Amino acid sequence: MMIPFQNAWPYETVMGDLYVSTCPFCDAENVLLPLKPKELPEIHDGKKRLLVFPCCHNKITLIDADQDYLLSDGPLSKRMV
Ligand SMILES: [Zn+2]
Fold first, then answer.
1. What is the pLDDT of residues 19-76, one digit of tens each?
2. How far is the CA of 46 from the centre of ligand 1 (A)?
3. How far is ligand 1, taken at its centre, from the CA of residue 32, in Å?
4. 60 belongs to a structural domain
5. What does the pLDDT read at residue 81?
6. Which of 7, 10, 14, 36 has a CA that sits 20 to 30 A from residue 59's CA?
């Protein structure tokens, strides 16, 4: 992976919605993201997408996505650095 792993955050797809099990900023659990699975291929193809976490309103810019991870243009996992 060309993007540093600390810029990646795992997501889950449940019934057509995207969730993260914990928010990287505020540690809220099972956060429903304002993002649809159909948008992931567009992001993977290079469309940058602003993502606002509904729990704490922190913003990240998604620059890639794969089957398991969302990839941001900045580090998400402070804990791992
Ligand atoms: Zn949050």
1. 999 999 999 999 999 999 999 999 999 999 999 999 999 999 999 999 999 999 999 8
2. 25
3. 10
4. yes
5. 43
6. 14
Query: Number of helices (H) and strands (E), helices first, in the chain?
Result: 1, 7
Kindly list the protein residues that place their beta carbon closer than 5 angstroms to ligand 1, a single-atom ion.
23, 25-26, 28, 53, 55-56
Residue 38 lies in a domain: yes
State residue 80's pLDDT score.
46
Domain count along the chain:
1
What six digits make up the tokens of 36?
Answer: 């649809």
User: Shortest CA distance to 49 belongs to which of 31, 64, 30, 28?
Assistant: 64
Tokens of 53: 């976490």
Domain that holds residue 60: 5-73
